[in-house]
Write a structure and sequence with these properties.
With about 1200 residues, the chain is an alpha+beta fold. The chain has 41 helices and 23 strands. The protein has a 14-stranded antiparallel β-sheet, with no helix packed on it. A three-stranded antiparallel β-sheet has the order 19-20-21. The protein is elongated. Belongs to the strumpellin family.
Length: about 1200
């Protein structure tokens, strides 16, 4: 037997939980595993009464365990403290068995159970006992692992003397992967140790089985307990709702996988549901003896009996597990069951394609195994396989003959309904038997006997999957055509029958007039008897009633017989006109009989016979054959349409009982199965876009490398060179192939698959989008991988190469759009922007606490998914690699930025590293969306750097007593700032001693990059869309003018809070580059003491490292101690911009005071040259004013405000 490869969940489920809640749709953390898949902490929106005050107004968190919920209440009512009986403490009440458990912070002294001291601050947790106290005890307590008492511990009083949380340095082996290399926390309790491991070993999640989730493994008595953060939606057990994901999402398949992975057999699974044995016996009795589904009438032939009873056999197979004694010991009953239901088949479909091989399933049961032996006899297998092989050989040409154009006419169909239905039965029965008994999923490759049976079936039946698939296609097409004809005939049945009756009656009336002798041209002698008789026949025909079809049919037959007899007895054959009238009337009467016999029962029989639910999963094994057939002959899609519709009939099986019960779940279940089928249709037809893009790749190659672009003016001599007839012929041939593929899918017509309408044009467009996304995403992923160790940067060459690739995609896509009838440019822009924005979003996830999952992303799609590729470095996507490569080559430690030239130079070699052309290349490669996404990613990086800088500032500088003393001394020295400091030189020397190397370099260079990106976006916007650029600029100016006017006069209008105009226009302005990155506020900040002083000292400390050059401006003195001037100015500007404008004013006032003080000393000492520090400070102010566009006349503290009072 097959060895089950399942995970032993028993190790994960040590604690029994008998409450029947199973949850399916809220994102949760699973802290305690139990016999049910998980326990979940819910924040439930339903009102739950507080057990203290019975109020339902408190926000609660509901924890499902044994009971429906445990609720954490923050109750405003006073609850007496169990220690001091006071009700003044703020408490949190936790509902469990008892009315409440209360966490008190009690001011009374409670003796520590370790040292009996009452001086420790404690938290008292009320439970059964008077108190449980969390002590932070200073006494040494021996660690239960290494017996050392040197560890800092927290002692938690409970039943045992102490429970202590140790951080133990002793290596403890991890129970998952055995190594002891993990950092652990040892929690002492009754057992020797409980250890919290963060284990790198992948452990399968009990909800969705994959092991991709980050888990924390908590060792207790059992080998491990695992805390999973599972992305699957799980509903709350109180309100059974989910706020985390849309109702369209379903994890039914994941729950099924979980249940299958438990390793329980069908018998043990049946034991879980206690059902009366008497009831089960009665059910099995009815299933054994009766045709409860009434399907035998649709299969009248005896060799089709097992197919007719297939659904009943599947139900009987399941029910037998509820009374396993029948399977084990009752040979007579099992022999009866096998002889009736399984004489010629041993692979059955239980439900929607779930197949069971009885050889394997009944192997443990003696009676069932013995009963099945005759069916599995080699001679019987050979007989059945040979019979279906012969049947397939005969049916294939027959069905192809029926499908010939013009063969299936209405007269032939009506005259041969039984023969056509027999052909249809034979085809479907043969297809069913061969598909089930040759399916790979039905046979375990590790089971020798099963392998032998499968090989014998394949050999004896001469099984060929391509022939079987072709017969399936032809049968589906024949069935579809026949159904459509019958539906049309049924809809027109009464109208046609009445028209035939009218025609017949009129013929008889005219014939009566012929024998009246009134019409002189007829040359028929007057015969009053015949005249009267024909008038009577006309009245009889007119009196036929459509509603009473049986009587009308019998009477019609009698009328036909009478017309035959009158022709013979009265010798009317000599008159051809009269014979023609009689023949026409008989024909109309025959048509009336055919029409009245069109019954809906034929459609019902066809529906039963054509059931393909057994192939719901097996059909996937024919996908490659389908796609290959489409590739060879695109018109094959029309037959595939019939096959998909045949497969859609399988939806009746799961919906039948739901519909009969009038369940509200009918729509959701229909939506699910229809969606699954449409997904499969998309999967099969995706070969058309794939084939199109294969041809498109050849067109791209020819257009880029072979075909030269024809210039505007061309010499006659060079006309032949530019003609390139061979290459252009190849392009035309490939284009024709693409148009043929398009024509193939558009032949499919709009089809209703289940309850979802499938539009072939939309299907084609979605397929093209999907393939475009896959190929472009792959090209970007592979093309933008950089080697950081390369001597010369690979950035520009790879960008040029990538730009050529993207341009090839764009040009070829533009070229074929008319041939496939799609909006190529629209699709290109939408999908490329979606790819880039999605990758930017995923890259920015590393900077977010709450990650944006794929199912939350507005850019990700189910039908047109953007592929995710494994990371090749610290970046998650290509946009991150591109950004970090730019930051690497523009590193201020290795390069110098020249603002006048917008160029970076290498500090050592003085060679150009890159310039603003870099951003033009990015624009050519990734377009506006790429530059905008890069700018957005830089914003996230800047926020992270600013937060890190402020954190370091608070933790290091402000906690350094020596530095704070220096700042205080500085404050007293510089006040008032309008004055002059006598010892300014001393301040400069002092700052050089206390200040280290340059910090926040990342912020500095990112601002330069953002400026360059904004310039490139603005330039391209004005060049490519000058009207849009002008409209955005004018709208921006008018909005700013209105806002300024509102602040001057509050009565004037201002955008309301719910108005999204400002947010939307900001996004458009940033995309067009109409913004200044230097004016952005990236983070919210609090007041920081000494911040202007620190920045002032920082800039003064850098000035001695710089020198002024008339040609180049400020440059570093030594290459070994690099300081890049422009990034330095921009970095300080950005830092100050995050704080109140007073800080900027104070900072500039300090620099002004510094310049005045140094110049005062130089004047007094009669030094003719201006000191380099003063030159540097003046250049800093000059550049600061230029970047910020501040007025040159600036009085920061003109109100006489003292500097100390501001701080």
């Amino acid at each position: 037997m097959k060895e089950k490869q399942t995970f032993d969940w028993s190790v994960l489920l040590p604690i029994p939980c008998y409450y029947p809640y199973r949850v399916t749709t809220r994102t949760v953390s699973l802290p305690v595993p139990c016999h049910y898949p998980y326990r979940v902490l819910f924040v439930c929106p339903l009102p739950i009464p507080c057990p203290v005050c019975v109020s339902t107004t408190h926000t609660v968190s509901c924890l499902c365990v044994h009971y429906p919920y445990r609720v954490l209440f923050v109750c405003p009512l006073p609850i007496p403290c169990p220690v001091c009986v006071s009700t003044t403490h703020t408490v949190s009440s936790l509902c469990v068995h008892y009315p409440y458990r209360v966490l008190f912070v009690c001011p009374l002294p409670i003796p520590c159970p370790v040292c009996v001291s009452t001086t420790h601050t404690v938290s008292c947790l009320c439970v059964h006992y008077p108190y449980r106290v969390l002590f932070v005890c200073p006494l040494p307590i021996p660690c239960p692992v290494c017996v050392s008492s040197a560890h800092t511990v927290s002692c938690l009083c409970a039943q045992c003397p102490y429970r202590v949380l140790f951080v133990c340095p002793v290596p403890i082996p991890c129970p998952v992967c055995v190594p002891s290399a993990h950092t652990v926390s040892c929690l002492c309790a009754q057992c020797p140790y409980r250890v919290l491991f963060v284990c790198p070993v992948p452990i399968p999640c009990p909800v969705c089985v994959p092991s991709a989730h980050t888990v924390s493994c908590l060792c207790v008595q059992c080998p491990y307990r695992v805390l999973f953060v599972c992305p699957l939606p799980i509903p709350c057990p109180v309100c059974v709702s989910s706020a985390a994901r849309s109702s369209a999402d379903s994890n039914l398949d994941d729950i099924c996988k979980l249940l299958r992975s438990t390793g329980y057999s069908s018998q043990s699974g049946a034991k879980r549901v206690p059902i009366s044995s008497t009831f089960i016996s009665m059910v099995i009795g009815r299933l054994r003896s009766d045709d409860i589904y009434n399907q035998v009438s649709a299969y009248p032939l005896p060799e089709h009996r097992s197919t007719a009873l297939a659904n009943q056999a599947a139900m009987l197979y399941v029910c037998l597990y509820f009374i396993p004694s029948i399977l084990q010991t009752q040979q007579a009953k099992m022999r009866e069951i096998v002889d009736k239901y399984f004489p010629d088949n041993w692979v059955i479909s239980v439900y929607m394609g779930i197949t069971v091989n009885l050889v394997e399933a009944w192997e443990p049961y003696k009676a069932a195994k013995i009963a099945l032996n005759y069916t599995l006899d080699s001679a019987n297998i050979r007989e059945q396989a040979s019979r279906y092989s012969v049947s397939m050989e005969g049916l294939r040409p027959q069905i192809q003959q029926l499908l010939k154009e013009g063969f299936l006419r209405e007269e032939i169909v009506l005259d041969n309904v039984p023969k056509l239905l027999n052909c249809l039965r034979d085809c479907n029965v043969s297809i069913r038997w061969l598909m089930l008994h040759t399916a790979d999923s039905a046979y375990d490759p590790n089971n020798k006997r099963l392998r032998q049976i499968k090989d014998q079936v394949i050999n004896d039946s001469k099984y060929n999957p391509k022939i079987l698939f072709q017969v399936l296609l032809d049968t589906a097409q024949f069935e579809f055509t026949l159904k459509e004809m019958f539906k049309k005939m049924l809809s027109e049945k009464q109208l046609k029958w009445e028209s035939y009756r009218t025609e017949g009656s009129e013929r008889m009336t005219e014939l009566a007039e012929v024998f009246s002798g009134v019409k002189p041209l007829t040359r028929v002698e007057k015969n009053e008897n015949l005249q009267a008789w024909f008038r009577e026949i006309s009245k009889q025909i007119e009196s036929l009633n459509y509603e009473d079809s049986t009587a009308a049919g019998r009477k019609t037959v009698q009328l036909i017989q009478a017309l035959v007899e009158v022709q013979e007895f009265h010798q009317l054959e000599s008159n051809l006109q009269v014979c023609q009238f009689l023949a026409d009337t008989r024909k109309f009467l025959h048509q009336m009989i055919r029409t009245i016999n069109i019954k809906e029962e034929v459609l019902i029989t066809m529906q039963i016979v054509g059931d393909l639910s057994y192939a719901w999963q097996i059909i996937d094994s024919f996908t490659s054959i389908m796609q290959e057939s489409i590739r060879v002959n695109p018109s094959m899609v029309t037959k595939l349409r019939a096959t998909f519709l045949k497969l859609a009939s399988a939806l009746d099986l799961p919906l039948l009982r739901i519909n009969q019960a009038n369940s509200p779940d009918l729509l959701s279940v229909s939506q699910f199965y229809s969606g699954e089928l449409v997904t499969y249709v998309r999967k099969v037809l995706q070969i058309i876009p794939e084939s199109m893009f294969t041809s498109l790749a050849k067109i791209i190659k020819l257009q880029i490398h072979a075909i030269m672009e024809v210039p505007t003016r061309l010499d006659k001599d060079k006309l032949k060179d530019y003609a390139q007839l061979g290459a252009r012929y190849e392009v035309a041939k490939l284009t024709h192939a693409i148009s043929i593929f398009t024509e193939g899918i558009l032949m499919m017509k709009t089809t209703l698959v289940g309850i979802i309408k499938v539009d072939p044009k939309q299907l084609l467009e979605d397929g093209i989008r999907k393939e475009l996304v896959r190929r472009v995403a792959y090209a970007l992923h592979k093309g933008l991988i950089f080697n950081p160790k390369a001597k010369t940067s690979e950035l520009m060459p790879k960008l040029k190469e990538m730009a050529a690739t993207m341009d090839g995609f764009y040009r070829s896509f533009e070229y074929i759009q008319d041939y496939v009838s799609i909006y190529g440019l629209k699709i290109w822009q939408e999908e490329v922007s979606r790819i880039i924005n999605y990758n930017v979003e995923q890259e920015c996830n590393s900077f977010l606490r709450t990650k944006i999952q794929d199912w939350q992303s507005v850019y990700q799609s189910t039908h047109i998914p953007i592929p995710k590729f494994p990371a090749v470095d610290e970046s998650a996507t290509f946009i991150g690699r591109l950004c970090r490569e730019i930051l690497r080559i523009t590193d201020p430690k290795a390069t110098c930025y020249m603002d006048q030239l917008n160029t970076w130079y290498d500090l050592k070699t003085h060679q150009e590293v890159t310039n603003n052309r870099l951003f033009s290349e990015i624009q050519d490669t990734l377009g506006t969306f790429g530059l905008n996404g890069l700018d957005r990613l830089l914003c996230f990086m800047m926020v992270k750097e600013l937060q890190n800088f402020l954190s370091v500032f608070q933790k290091t500088i402000l906690r350094d007593k020596a530095m704070v003393d220096v700042f205080k001394a500085m404050l007293s020295a510089v006040n008032p700032v309008k004055g002059i400091v006598a010892n300014a030189k001393t301040i400069v020397c002092l700052t050089q001693k206390i200040w280290g190397p340059v910090e926040n370099e990342s912020i500095m260079k990112m601002q330069i990059l953002r400026q360059q990106i904004a310039n490139e976006l603005n330039y391209s916007c004005k060049f490519d869309s000058k009207h849009l650029a002008a409209a955005l600029e004018n709208l921006n100016k008018s909005l700013l003018a209105d806002i300024e006017a509102h602040y001057q006069d509050p009565s004037l209008p201002y955008p309301k809070e719910d108005n999204n105009l400002l947010y939307e226009i900001t996004a458009s302005l940033e995309a067009a580059g109409i913004h200044n990155p230097l004016n952005k506020i990236y983070i919210t900040t609090k007041r920081l003491p000494y911040f202007p002083i620190v920045n002032f000292l920082f800039i003064i400390a850098q000035l001695p490292k710089l020198q002024y050059s008339k040609n180049q401006g400020m440059t570093c003195r030594k290459a070994t101690d690099p300081v890049d001037w422009s990034p330095l100015v921009l970095g300080l500007l950005t830092l100050l911009k995050q704080f109140h404008s007073r800080y900027t004013e104070q900072f500039l006032a300090l620099i002004g005071q510094f310049i005045r003080s140094i110049m005062e000393q130089c004047t007094s000492q009669k030094i003719p040259d201006m000191p380099s520090d003063v030159v540097g400070a003046l250049m800093f102010l000059e550049d600061y004013v230029r970047y910020t566009k501040l007025p040159r006349k600036f009085h920061p503290l003109d109100k006489g405000l003292e500097f100390r009072t501001v701080l």
